Amino acid sequence: MYLNELFSMKNCVFSIEVFPPKKNVASLNTLYPKLKELAALSPDFISVTYGAGGNVADDSTCQIAAYIKRELGIESLAHLTCVNSEKEQIQDTLQQLRQNGIENVLALRGDINPNLPRKTDYRYASELASVVHESGFNVVGACYPEGHVESDSLRQDVENLHYKIEAGVTHLITQLFFDNGVFYRFLNLARKAGVSVPIEAGVMPIVSKTQVERTVALSSASLPSEFTKMISKYDHDEQGLFDAGIDYAIRQIRDLIEGGTDGIHLYAMNRPMVARKVYEGIKDLL
Ligand code: FAD
């Protein structure tokens, strides 16, 4: 099923993102039970990242996306980046995805890794999106409520979304954010600029100190005072931070759904328990 069909069927689309475990088959087998737990939450689709952090990817994205679709009966969205790939490699990957019954691809440029020579067959995600679309897939794209780091301004970044849409992107998923005001401002700007495709809001529950140190510190997302107070308050209280982080994500998502968002994309970091707790707090609105 093409994912764009979901938006006319659902009040709010609910999706979950997972990432391939680090290398080897054994670790893939540790992911599968987690995927089963995530599937029990009946997400509309599960997306699978590809070579995140600028690393060269292998075929695990395709394997996992195929497992989700074939074994769990949940629609899957395979991420695909072009920053480290030549045309031939992209064609090979698309063929592999097609052979595995995958119909939806999130076309991304990918993060530039300063330690890898950048491939130049595709400069922007829109150039990849065009090829993916012409190959018969439904194409999804990324967007940034606070503007992409390389963009001069949020306005320019929003204008650049038109390239993706002209290339065939049927819906967008946002980068994570912690301040809903930032999302509403972006949405307003995007709609005024004529970006009319559905936009899913990306939310990541922050439930541990490691996540605060890694994800929050590295993300360029602005942090509302309520969020920073929560982090300080539970600096030495692991369980307290877990509970407060879940509660924050639930309140953030409930506000987004009540505010009319097209969809929620949950960055659940391969933690079914976190996804389940958040889901329990929002399921009455989905
Ligand atoms: P682009 O759309 O190409 O944008 C990159 C920059 O170029 C932006 O500043 C944009 O404004 C500008 N731009 C775009 N088109 C033009 C144009 N025609 N002319 C001039 N400027 C232009 N990374 C991974 O490695 N693997 C993943 O699985 C992954 N999943 C992600 C999922 C989501 C939902 C999001 C939001 C991001 C994800 N990323 C992933 C990160 C992403 O690859 C990086 O943020 C990357 O730096 C930009 O990718 P993009 O597809 O948005 O690029």
Query: At the first level of CATH, what is the class?
Result: Alpha Beta
Q: Give me the strand/helix succession.
A: HEHEHEHEHEHEHEHHHEH
- Would you tell me the overall average pLDDT? 94
The number of helical runs is 11
Strand order of the largest sheet: 1-2-3-4-5-6-7-8
Tell me the total number of β-strands: 8
Beta fraction of the residues?
Answer: 15-25%
CATH topology: TIM Barrel
Please give the share of residues in helix: 40-55%
Radius of gyration over all CA atoms, rounded: 18 Å
Ligands bound, unique: flavin-adenine dinucleotide
How many discrete domains? Answer: 1
Provide the CATH architecture: Alpha-Beta Barrel
Q: Stretches where pLDDT falls below 50 for ≥5 residues?
A: none
> Structural class of the secondary elements?
alpha/beta
- Oligomer kind: single chain
Lay out the secondary structure:
Blueprint: H1 6-9, E1 13-18, H2 25-39, E2 45-48, H3 60-70, E3 75-81, H4 87-99, E4 104-108, H5 125-134, E5 138-143, H6 154-166, E6 169-174, H7 180-192, E7 199-203, H8 209-218, H9 225-233, H10 238-258, E8 263-267, H11 272-282
Parallel strand pairs: 1-2, 1-8, 2-3, 3-4, 4-5, 5-6, 6-7, 7-8
Helix pairs in contact: 2-3, 2-11, 5-6, 9-10, 10-11
Give an overview in words.
With about 290 residues, the protein is α/β, with parallel strands linked by helices. It has one domain: TIM Barrel (Alpha-Beta Barrel), CATH 3.20.20. Helices cover about 45% and strands about 15% of the residues. Strands 1-2-3-4-5-6-7-8 form an 8-stranded parallel β-barrel, surrounded by 5 helices. Helix 6 links the parallel strand 5 and strand 6. Helix 2 packs parallel to helix 3 and helix 9 packs antiparallel against helix 10. It is globular and about 50 Å long. The model has no long low-confidence stretch (mean pLDDT about 95). The structure holds flavin-adenine dinucleotide. The site of flavin-adenine dinucleotide has 23 residues, from strand 3, helix 5 and helix 6.
